[in-house]
Amino acid sequence: MANTDDTISELIQQLKSGAVLVKHKRNGKTYCRQFFLHEREGYITYDKSNKLRGKPRIYHVHDIDEIRIGFEAQVFDQLVKDRKVKPDDKDRAFSIIYNNHRKGVHFIAPDMETRDLWVKGLQHLMNKRGQQRQYHIIGEDNWILEFFHVADKNKSNTLSKKECRDLLAKSLNIEMPDNIFEQMFYKIHKTKSDKLNPEEFVQFFKILTRRKDLYDLMQKFVKYGYQQTMENIYMDRNELLYFLRLMKNSNMQHINSLIQAQKLIDEYELNTEFREKGFLGLDGFRNMLLSRNFEIIESSYSRQIYQNMTRPLCDYYINTSHNTYLFYSQISGESNPEAYNRVLLMGCRAVELDCYDGDDGKPIVKHAFTLVKSCSLESIIRRIQPNLFKASPYPVILNIENHCSPAQQKQMAQILKTYLRDHLVTKHLSDKDPSVLPSPEDLKYKVLIRGKSTSTSTISNVMFQEELDEYSSQNSLRKDVEPELSELFVYFMNVPYQENDYTKENYTPFHSSSLAEKNFLKYAQRDPLDLIVQTTWRILRVYPDGLRQDSSNLDPINPWNFGVQMVALNYQTDDDMMALYYGKFRDNGCCGYILKPDYLIKAHKTKFNPWNSSINFDQPQILTITIISGQFLPRSSIKTKDIPDPYVRISTHGLPCDQQTQKTQVVDNNGFDPIWNETFEFRIRFPQMCLMYFSVLDYDTLSDDDRIAYFSAPVTMIQEGYRHIYLRANNNDETHSTLFVHVDIRNDGNANNNNVNVQNIIRIQF
């Protein structure tokens, strides 16, 4: 069936009509319910039975991570094993994975047709939501009416003044002065009943979302703009062209005629009268500025792989996870295949497996000497296999910490070969130079195994102990590895870290080393160039110290400054370090591999030293950023009752000379549409190494200020002109919250004059 508008509409209507689905729980209990898509298409739920206490469970579309067909969830493994479901049920089964892969609901439909109907319909709704920007949803009546019906406590299908005020405070995070509220309320509501019906509330909401900041901006570019109201102000096609020419927006450079200006108006202006006259009103202007063309980062950089992917692996930063099997802290919870699926679908390319002997003769993954429950290695590999290359075509690295007996090492090797099949690299690529690492392009759709393969008796015990410092003496790695397993460590043989003179004599590019964060810092301070030079020909990995039982993260900036390719972070922790990490790997199509700057790749010639950056290896810039306003900012948590008092903290993270932090004033009691209009200047000497981090925080006089949303990205991705920043939730989920900013970028000539330019050095040396 073709995906025409009519067939999709029919499909969604069938979901609204509902179907009888049997929900299966891990303990074997089943619940037969009439499930249906709610009329406003925001969630699925079921009809309440007479025996059911409380309200029916709701599954919001925006919380869904994956829809899986068949028995492709761990719960079904147990149900099949316990004979609670039959193998024949597989063709009618599907699972909804939600809440960042932490939860799932598992169904068996009456037939395959019903199963496919639900899978296709829910996938369409997920895709539709993923493509929507803020201007789509604030113009969508169904989305607006969700607020209405939540606020309608007595189910009268009207909102009283009190209910309307409560809605503004509790759902939209705004405390509105009485006189302004009264003026808006009676502008819509003409009768004396003091209640808004759904149609009136939609009008009320649309007036509420008119942007005062954009009205002020339009007035500067429109003839007689200061005489026009928010309702009737407009740009004609000539004024629109003039505005776009001044914006330095590369996405809009092709708009250079009245015909092309009209096409923009046709796309973004919803007022038919304005559109036919060639006018762009305030709402249309807002819609245009909220589109992808006006996002703060260059969209092609985040949505397309544009870097050279044919360099050796050591020339790239690699998105790497630490203790991937955990969803929560280092000491409780369970090892879970879904934790791997979550990070893989977020673009992570290197994950960790701590393998131990299982009681049934098969290896398990667990965090030793903690309360973390184990999971079979086979279950993890089988479950992640379908998701290995959905986010990126480039190689996945399985970092194996091997604590298994010889017999279970053989089992481990067999499991990897069985489920990964042709994806698994088992020998060197025959047509590649054996003296250098292959490239990401060479290893597309391949899985590499990283592990320690031989005894380290020839290497100092001190160095070996440093490699294992996150483990107790009872938890040491196996020193003798079975050939069936060690032969899989083709390009990633894990060896202790040594100084460069030793490694040049004893290691190859296929020897990789791990360093705990404190040991990394020790070597970086002792001999920075020695450490950096090693990253020009082999791969280093840095991981959090074992004392971080709270799953907190090390700052990845320092290891990146020294060229370390694999900086392993705890993905389960939503802290500032992970926010920077997400920003770093937003570049290059989010493929998980970022090409390092040329001066790091050629550090053996440039002698680049992050501690002493007197030479300009980069093109210094001055970024002037005006934080104008915010829109639809959330609360710090669903539990708090306070309206946010937001402010924006802007920080840059790179070499020590580029570490800066500035912040706006606090706006009291307004998460809906705070306005700042504050300007900040940042001088960046090494833009290729620098990240820009926007944190929106909720000011609190009695405790630490909570982060409520954020955005981070490499400085090299930041675009000039008027831009919207689509903020991320603390767990990196996309939101419809935004900041409106203006960015000006210019070269810093003074920095170039005061320092030696690296290009002259490179010309001489090369």
Q: Uncertain runs with pLDDT below 50, 5 residues or more?
A: 455-475, 754-766
Whole-number average pLDDT?
Answer: 89
Instruction: Tell me the structural class.
Output: alpha+beta
**Level-1 CATH class name of the largest domain:** Alpha Beta
Key words describing this protein structure:
5 domains; seven-stranded antiparallel sheet; globular; Recoverin, domain 1; eleven-stranded mixed sheet; PH-domain like
Report on this model:
This protein starts with a helix and ends with a helix. It has 5 domains: 3-133, Roll (PH-domain like), CATH 2.30.29.30; 140-209, EF-hand (Recoverin, domain 1), CATH 1.10.238; 212-294, Recoverin, domain 1 (Orthogonal Bundle), CATH 1.10.238; 313-461 and 478-606, Phosphatidylinositol (PI) phosphodiesterase (TIM Barrel), CATH 3.20.20; 621-751, C2 domain (Immunoglobulin-like). The chain has an 11-stranded mixed sheet with strand order 15-14-13-16-17-18-19-20-21-12-22. A 7-stranded antiparallel sheet has the order 4-3-2-1-7-6-5. A hairpin with a 7-residue loop joins β13 (350-356) and β14 (364-365). By secondary structure, the chain is of the alpha+beta class. The chain is built from 28 helices and 30 strands.
